[in-house]
């Protein structure tokens, strides 16, 4: 599609906007009706540790959204010579889970409690036992119940709780809704109704600690929508929030908002049963769409859904690439100190490539990339830590190999439950995320860690916001009766660019030796958490 055609599409409003609020970046992507990305903009941000709580301020949320959209609009004007006035459909995605409570006046009652917090252990355990359904610590219902158990003053004033994408969609549309995939990180979903499980809502209502409040759990949760449904329209107030310049007009169709897990499934075409995807960034998670029920409840396996409500087994880890980024920054400082100003992509490529010369077991080195607590390995807080024995083979190749190995270690431990205990089978496992921007290296490590072929698509580093834009197009353009899986297969991924790497037996054995060392050293990480107190 040449620029003159794209210009006409933009002017006529035959475009979709996907916005995703990730852990380190807010990105906006503009896509034409034939799924081509024509412009993007982003904004870098970081979570803050405020009185022991990982959070992002609402001011930063809107500063980030407005900046990313303004950068996108500038790119459109520079490339095509037009302003964005009409958008056909808009979708919002964000980090799943967490807790955002509001009172009847729409005022936020406590700062946003993100997925990264490990502060709801008692609530999550009690609810898991009550429901006979795994409730992870980061789920919204765990945060609400923990606040109840803590006797927090704000709970009596709760009128509405939501997640980050649900909040942004509410402010843009005026509608208190969310997509079913995101809703499945708020409260368990009944597959037959694609709505909150009514029997479990009733169990929650009957809890003695809950009965004291005037609100009813059903009335304070966002309305659940499935992919393709109408989530309202962009209001004039929402348009002004998104684009303070005043160019953008109201009226765009709002798609059901989704969590980043849902957009990851869409952007990797992994919403059909027996497909799966892995997203690796600040956190990491794997999603496998099930074709049969799990045999039992596993505390390390979350039961969520695709954006159209199919059951998904999810392994979520709080940590993945942050430690790699920290060490790479250190190497960058050293490079500058000796007069070498490498571009970030070149430095990452050099370090990743160095790992290829390492021993298969990373020379006996162990690393814990825990910037925050890690549920899978039962660590309440994070203490990034590198450990070696005197006889370990300590060199650059092994040092960086162990960084890659450790980034996937908690995910490996969780996935072993699905693969070895539940014997879940997948026809395809597709990976996406910034780690895969450097070709082959991280992809091969992941294949060896899971002993499973791993496919990476051409959009591996930028899938989330594009996936949300595709969900917005599905809401606007899908045919009656057309499923999301068929829409993706028949219209979106007709000629997709991808590569697949098989596990290498010698490297699989090396990774297994590493993971044995990793598990053996976990008490050391636990002792660091205990001994090195946070300020």
TrEMBL record:
Residues 16-241 form the Carbohydrate kinase FGGY N-terminal domain. Signal peptide: none annotated. It holds the Pfam family FGGY_C. It comes from the Bacteria. Residues 277-475 form the Carbohydrate kinase FGGY C-terminal domain. InterPro entries: ATPase_NBD, FGGY_C, FGGY_Carb_Kinase, FGGY_N. GO terms for molecular function: kinase activity. Keywords: Kinase, Transferase. Belongs to the FGGY kinase family. This is Carbohydrate kinase.
